[in-house]
Design a protein that fits this description.
By secondary structure, the protein is an alpha+beta fold. The protein folds into 2 domains: 206 residues, Enolpyruvate transferase domain (UDP-n-acetylglucosamine1-carboxyvinyl-transferase, Chain, Alpha-beta prism); 208 residues, UDP-n-acetylglucosamine1-carboxyvinyl-transferase, Chain (Alpha-beta prism). It is 30% helix and 25% strand. The protein has a 4-stranded mixed β-sheet with strand order 21-22-1-23. Strands 2-14-16-15 form a 4-stranded mixed β-sheet, covered by helices on one side. The longest helix is centred in the middle third of the chain and has 14 residues. Uridine-diphosphate-2(N-acetylglucosaminyl) butyric acid binds next to helix 1, helix 5, helix 6 and helix 12.
Length: 423
């Protein structure tokens, strides 16, 4: 793939970055809302949609099902009236885990859906058992053949009580969406409480759905008729992107101002950075962050929202390599999300990996530039942060993976003074 590498001039531990970075709309809110639009028989208009590859992939998946998708800057319109397809494109579905979000809306609207095992970032095993057993509770039947699933509920989904065995963001969203068109009320228990779940519920409610409790573990959905809205729906700011740039500021910022932040959504990151001694000025929708003279070590543990997001774990670990003393990192959500550590060690970090979930980081260790490939969206971004701190010129490959989740990352970073080029 051409132009798939970022070349970054490291700052050799200096904190010189200065300026403003605008946070984009949230990938993980835009994706379920786009999926939900399939249940709305008419046109949906979305604002503040990030210009990233996963949105392109979701748009193409919708088009393959018969939807009309138009996009200009950060607005996106989806016409779903003519949609008739219920078979997800195999190649696109395998490129993105979020393709599973379409299973709920399609099944609810057409009584059947066929899709391959969804692909996406390799963060450990990513099963879909929770989705399948929840669909079964709503009296859908499923069959599996060569990792292709067919689910059907020809007479519609029933109501019922679903208890999620594990807290899952996309399973909560998928079942919440499907339940709006079920024949009777549905209660979801042990639901994910992420802001993206709430945003999806807000979109559905704006289209006439009856949903109570989104953002709590128990969500109650009554069947409703969804109608298109003339008013555009605004996608919430990306809390993972905001957290990543807060960490950049803590690592190398003379003074970085992050605009368009929902401060409440990044409390866990703010709390961790404050503990480390990072200078933060918090305003209503913007935050000013500067690197301190000395970073203090801390113990971090990823957790479902409102805890520290697993998507922030790799960037946070880079920061911990620059803290004076010993920190621990406990990854509780995925079993493959510390795999990037070996590359960091090659850059000079002192990290002991005890098991797939626990690492000890000893700092402060200066980092040396390297040529490495990012393994997924978030670890790729973390490698960019490591390259920023390092001495020398690094090349971070697999830029296309970073582009899946971060809009124009090189423009945003060169805007605060980093020498970064796409090659
Ligand atoms: N799980 C199961 N069975 C299932 C579903 C999930 O065991 O059927 C397990 C997973 O293996 C994992 C845990 O449940 O151990 C939580 O995973 P979850 O289902 O919540 O993850 P997800 O919905 O697939 C979303 C985000 C991820 C983010 C996680 C955790 C989207 C599109 N993706 O994934 O974002 O890491 O929640 O917060 O919302 C990213 O943006 O780079 C990304 C990976």
């Amino acid at each position: 793939m051409s132009h798939d590498t970022f070349e970054i001039e490291g700052l050799n531990g200096e904190s010189t970055l200065e300026g403003t970075i605008a946070v984009s709309g949230a990938k993980n809110a835009a994706l379920p809302v786009m999926a939900a639009s399939l249940m709305v028989p008419g046109e949906t208009h979305l604002q503040n949609v990030p210009d990233i590859r996963d949105i392109d992939s979701m748009a193409r998946l919708l088009e393959k099902l018969g939807a009309f998708v138009t996009r200009k800057d950060h607005t996106l319109s989806i016409g779903a009236k003519e949609v008739t397809g219920s078979v997800l494109d195999s190649e696109l579905s395998k490129s993105m885990r979020a393709s599973i979000l379409l299973a709920g809306p399609i099944l609810a609207r057409f009584g059947q859906v066929t899709f391959p095992h969804p692909g996406g970032c390799v963060l450990g095993s990513r099963p879909i058992d929770v989705f399948l057993s929840a669909f079964r509770t709503l009296e859908a039947e499923y069959s599996e053949n060569d990792e292709t699933y067919s689910i059907s509920a020809p007479n519609g989904l029933s109501g019922g009580e679903i208890f999620f065995r594990v807290v899952s963001v996309t399973a909560t969203e998928t079942l919440m969406m499907a339940a709006t068109l079920a024949k009777a009320p549905v209660t979801l228990r042990n639901s994910a409480m992420e802001p993206e779940v709430v945003a999806t519920a807000e979109f559905l409610k704006a289209c006439g759905a009856s949903i109570e409790g989104a953002g709590t573990p128990t969500i109650f959905i009554r069947p409703s008729h969804l109608t298109p809205q003339d008013q555009p729906f605004a996608i919430i700011p990306d809390r993972i992107e905001a957290s990543s740039f807060l960490i950049l500021g803590a690592l190398a910022g003379k003074k970085i101002t992050l605009t368009g932040v929902n401060v409440e959504h990044v409390f866990a990151t703010i709390e961790a950075l404050s503990e480390m001694g990072v200078g933060l000025e918090i305003h209503k929708d913007f935050i000013v962050v500067s690197a301190p003279k000395k970073l203090l070590p801390i113990n971090v543990k990823t957790h479902e929202y409102p805890g520290l997001a697993t998507d922030v774990q790799a960037p946070m670990t880079i920061l911990l390599t620059q803290a004076e003393g010993e920190s621990t990192v406990l990854e509780t959500i995925f079993d493959g999300r510390l795999n990037y550590v070996s590359e960091l060690v090659r850059m000079g970090a002192e990290i002991q990996l005890w098991n797939p979930h626990k690492a000890t980081v000893r700092g402060r260790t200066p980092l040396k530039a390297r040529d490495i490939d990012g393994p997924d969206i978030r670890a790729g971004l973390a490698f960019i942060l490591a390259a920023v701190s390092a001495e020398g010129t690094s090349h971070i490959g697999n830029a296309h993976l970073i582009d899946r989740g971060y809009e124009k990352i090189e423009e945003k970073l060169s805007g605060v003074g980093l020498l970064i080029k796409r090659k």
